[in-house]
Amino acid sequence: MAKAISVSKKTRCFLKGYYSIFDISGKVFITKNNNYLSGFRKDYLAMRRDWQNLGYDMRNAIKKVMIETIDQKNALNQRPHVRQP
After folding, report:
1. Which of 43, 46, 45 is nearest to 35 (CA)?
2. Are 48 and 13 in the same domain?
3. pTM to 2 decimals?
4. Along the chain (85 residues), what's the average pLDDT of each consecutive run of 10 residues?
5. Partner of 22 at 20 to 30 A CA spacing, among 8, 69, 82, 83?
6. How far apart are the first and last CA of the chain?
7. Distance between CA atoms of 83 and 45, rounded to whole angstroms?
C-alpha cells in the first residue's frame, strides 16, 4: 500500500510539474505551501545576524586597539626622562 501511495504521489508531482510548463500566467499552479516569504524572512534574519556579529567584532577590535594605544602612551610617560647634554 505504501508503494502505491508513493507512486501516485510521484505521478501527481510529475504531472503538476509537466502542466506548469504550459501555465504562462503563473497563477494556476501556485501551491498552498509557498514558502517564499518565510525564505526571504529567514535570509533577512540571517544577514541581519551576520552584520550584527560583524559590528560586534569591529567594536571589540577597536576597543582593543584603543586600550593598547593608551597602555603604550602610559608606558612612555612612565619612563625616566634622560636629559640630553
Report:
1. 43
2. no
3. 0.44
4. 63 76 63 64 89 95 92 77 62
5. 8
6. 103
7. 61
